[in-house]
Predict the structure of NADPH-dependent 7-cyano-7-deazaguanine reductase.
Amino acid sequence: MSTQPSKELETFPNPRPERDFVLHMRVPEFTCLCPKTGQPDFATIYLDYVPDERCVELKSLKLYMWSFRDQGAFHEAITNEMLDDLVRATAPRYMKVTAEFYVRGGIYTTVVAEHRKPGWQPEPKVELA
Amino acid sequence: MSTQPSKELETFPNPRPERDFVLHMRVPEFTCLCPKTGQPDFATIYLDYVPDERCVELKSLKLYMWSFRDQGAFHEAITNEMLDDLVRATAPRYMKVTAEFYVRGGIYTTVVAEHRKPGWQPEPKVELA
Amino acid sequence: MSTQPSKELETFPNPRPERDFVLHMRVPEFTCLCPKTGQPDFATIYLDYVPDERCVELKSLKLYMWSFRDQGAFHEAITNEMLDDLVRATAPRYMKVTAEFYVRGGIYTTVVAEHRKPGWQPEPKVELA
Amino acid sequence: MSTQPSKELETFPNPRPERDFVLHMRVPEFTCLCPKTGQPDFATIYLDYVPDERCVELKSLKLYMWSFRDQGAFHEAITNEMLDDLVRATAPRYMKVTAEFYVRGGIYTTVVAEHRKPGWQPEPKVELA
Amino acid sequence: MSTQPSKELETFPNPRPERDFVLHMRVPEFTCLCPKTGQPDFATIYLDYVPDERCVELKSLKLYMWSFRDQGAFHEAITNEMLDDLVRATAPRYMKVTAEFYVRGGIYTTVVAEHRKPGWQPEPKVELA
Amino acid sequence: MSTQPSKELETFPNPRPERDFVLHMRVPEFTCLCPKTGQPDFATIYLDYVPDERCVELKSLKLYMWSFRDQGAFHEAITNEMLDDLVRATAPRYMKVTAEFYVRGGIYTTVVAEHRKPGWQPEPKVELA
Amino acid sequence: MSTQPSKELETFPNPRPERDFVLHMRVPEFTCLCPKTGQPDFATIYLDYVPDERCVELKSLKLYMWSFRDQGAFHEAITNEMLDDLVRATAPRYMKVTAEFYVRGGIYTTVVAEHRKPGWQPEPKVELA
Amino acid sequence: MSTQPSKELETFPNPRPERDFVLHMRVPEFTCLCPKTGQPDFATIYLDYVPDERCVELKSLKLYMWSFRDQGAFHEAITNEMLDDLVRATAPRYMKVTAEFYVRGGIYTTVVAEHRKPGWQPEPKVELA
Amino acid sequence: MSTQPSKELETFPNPRPERDFVLHMRVPEFTCLCPKTGQPDFATIYLDYVPDERCVELKSLKLYMWSFRDQGAFHEAITNEMLDDLVRATAPRYMKVTAEFYVRGGIYTTVVAEHRKPGWQPEPKVELA
Amino acid sequence: MSTQPSKELETFPNPRPERDFVLHMRVPEFTCLCPKTGQPDFATIYLDYVPDERCVELKSLKLYMWSFRDQGAFHEAITNEMLDDLVRATAPRYMKVTAEFYVRGGIYTTVVAEHRKPGWQPEPKVELA
Ligand SMILES: [Ca+2]
Ligand SMILES: [Ca+2]
Ligand SMILES: [Ca+2]
Ligand SMILES: [Ca+2]
Ligand SMILES: [Ca+2]
Ligand SMILES: [Ca+2]
Ligand SMILES: [Ca+2]
Ligand SMILES: [Ca+2]
Ligand SMILES: [Ca+2]
Ligand SMILES: [Ca+2]
Ligand SMILES: [Ca+2]
Ligand SMILES: [Ca+2]
Ligand SMILES: [Ca+2]
Ligand SMILES: [Ca+2]
Ligand SMILES: [Ca+2]
Ligand SMILES: [Ca+2]
């Protein structure tokens, strides 16, 4: 695996596919370009998912995030694109991408998109006291 | 698009209308006038919505917020007016406006109003562990 | 309207009665007397409600809060009394009073009481991702 | 009422028994002894309840908390014992005791136990926007 | 019980098995090795459970956590392994293990896995105002 | 000592007058009246001092703070008056009164006044790494 | 005194001119216009001073802050202008104006300017342990 | 060394007496009795010192803190007593005891006392940018 | 002025050169490249200065920060280079650059460098109570 | 450079030796063993220094921190040993090591040791308003 920015997401087999478990990943170092002005945008990306057969490999996720550094992208489009890429690579039971952008024009914008595998149902939540 | 305060809200086509995704916007720089005393009021405005065919354009939202600067408006009325304007411009699946006003007479007031497109149902929420 | 403490709560017509919207009010400056010892008690009062035909006028709410300054009142009783007074004045769809008292005998006490208009149902909550 | 530690919990009549209202009490000054080593343990105790006919008197609750000062008690057992004592004294509609213990062996332990009066149902929760 | 790292988890009888109560445990001092690079990883471990017949003994839990100090383990695998070990030792009604790992490659990862005893149902949650 | 508001400050002999030591006291429950409008003002009072022969008695300080409840007083004047009263009662080596008032007209005001015993010098401060 | 924005600052006699005491004032509701773009700027203003013969009147300070609402002003210039106006009105022993501006172009700017009365010396600071 | 509360403070030789270095110790679990009412008091104790020939042994410090559990002691006196005991045991170059007591009568009290070895001078502080 | 990244720093005349005043600027959106690995580095930059004849223009500072986006630079070198560039452009009385880098290898690094104009002395600091 | 734990500290030439600048480094992932019990200890290490001819290389510092993983060491001794090693490797103008240990026996301990190059003087600190 090179250490170049890359759109290819590596995966590895889920070590416990018989159980629905959850992965939360926070990526505070994300930058892309504004497609209108060409100026840098900054964001924190959150990835939350329930893996099925494959998990995202950590270093490859980092290189994937890096791959947006010189890419122009609207807030709404880039969040959906990330979700599409990650779903294509891992075919998860559930996945959510949250992109928390830095202030522009005095306004803070966060975009959230999620994917559910057809037929998959979360187990009813146990809420402890 | 001018850089004058404006009640006209620009929109652009939703890049992913086949998916219910969420936009959270926070506007910490908002001021209007008290209709009783004419004195300035200050607030932070929150906009949360699920777009249908159109998204709110960021710069135009900023000019829209600016348009209240010289307008007298009661807390309860202005929050509902904003929601009406934004719903008219974007016809969203779901939208919520929250206006968190600065203290007056020793009392902090927040007003929250929401709109739901008839027939639209949110997908059952997945609550991860 | 005088600027004397007053048990009379002024109201004004709800500017948008066709929509269920929410008002949150926080009153950090509240003091009354302990009915057992006569010593001052301090609290922060929270008022959350969905108006029906009438909204509470802000200045009158402040004078109402002031009216407890020389009144002896147990924690449990005063919270219910406030709710009764505010419900009588505004006949809201929903109302909740929370009284967060300052420490006494090393113990922090908060009392919460709510009222629901018979037959009124909250719209099913939309929980965004 | 003496100012000695005491297992006896005083109560007073609920001033508004026709309404389900809530009491939250936080007791940050609690200490008992570890039954294995005899060394002091420290905790913060939280009491949350919906009274039925009787409320817990504040000063008596303080003396009750004091009564554990020289008592050896395991984390799991003491939390359940407190709940049993408080339920016996007040026969509440609902009650929860939370004991947040200070670190031991590098591990922080919190124990939560609750009681529900048979047949009592909480009103469906109103979640405001 | 020795003070050596140990995979053996001691338990003791649940003092109140007729009641569903909850234990929350936080272990901020956890370290293992990255199986790819051999370098140290650090995490905070959270254990939340409803005991059935047995509770985890605190000191033994500490020695168990210590036992990972020289063990290579992937984030996803180690969290599931811990849950398996703890379930085997205590056969709880419900158990959840959360492992919050320290940043690697600029990414923070948290893994959450839970176990439910077949047939066990949590009591419907009482949400107080 | 009565439990009535009182301008009389009780004192007791400094237990260690041969050493310059420091007392910090924070009084978050303070209220007086605005002399212009008669409306309540709220503040947190801080007292910091190096005692000489006498220390302020805690309960008497509480009753002294209570004595301002029905007194009209400007922010600047009341802070200096408190300092004068406390200096008269204890003749300290050093004393500072800080009054942090609640917002009025959108402005937060804090007033700080201090007294130094003639000829007294603080020991040069040891600032640890 | 009118309730119109006004550049005139009212003062009143210092109630304790024989003592150097300190006033801290925080004004979180301040807005002016950017002289280059005409767009609104927002800031929090802090005023710290040691009065000599005159103190700033609170309501007049609020109207003075309001007077900048329609005024174009660079960050550096407006802070110095405020200090000049306040010094002219009160001739203090010491005064400092801090203007903490809201983010522009991704950069947060704070400007601080101070004035010292010629010949005035602060008392050597007493730093308590 | 026993595990009984004990007024005897164990020490060990300073491993680096040729260098002035600093020890900060925080003891959040401290309780004693109020000498007037016999009721429990709680505090957090801070110990900061520059050792000379001897350092305080950690476990012995814990047992020393425990020794106050059944002792009546005024805030001002107990802080000075601790400092005296710790100075006697370790004869440090510099030592400071801070006792932050829990609220009583609505007032939070902190007492700070320090000792300096005659002739000892702290090195002039290096304040980094 | 273009909206391209640029090493040229625009300045404007100090509006109040006869007074030593202070500018604090915080730039949370900064990224450059690691010269060893070519991978992105992220930092928050702080600029604090006392202007002499010239002030840094805000938009030009933003473009200057952008100019490092594709530049390889060691933490220690880049901080000193920024200070050199900013001093050359503005010749300030005093300037400090602080670069707070994001974690690498589990270690957080901050670099601070400052410049003082020969012969310039800060006024003795007034520390208010 | 290997990726094994190592006591050898790599350095590189200071890129700007003609200027006194400051490096702050925070290492939250540190663990060693208690020399008395053999059990793990955890700490956060802070390194602050003014380099002279050499700077500490980041990766080598990480491997150095790793080298304590299997080493028994008292709090006071290990902090001084680190300072000695780092001073030997870099011969800095000024260096400070702070070791903030995790709670043991209910007590939090922090040790701070510093080194000054003979004859070196810090520039008088500029404290901005
Ligand atoms: Ca809990
Ligand atoms: Ca709200
Ligand atoms: Ca989580
Ligand atoms: Ca509550
Ligand atoms: Ca969100
Ligand atoms: Ca505690
Ligand atoms: Ca208050
Ligand atoms: Ca320290
Ligand atoms: Ca604001
Ligand atoms: Ca202190
Ligand atoms: Ca405590
Ligand atoms: Ca710093
Ligand atoms: Ca960032
Ligand atoms: Ca202050
Ligand atoms: Ca840690
Ligand atoms: Ca500042």
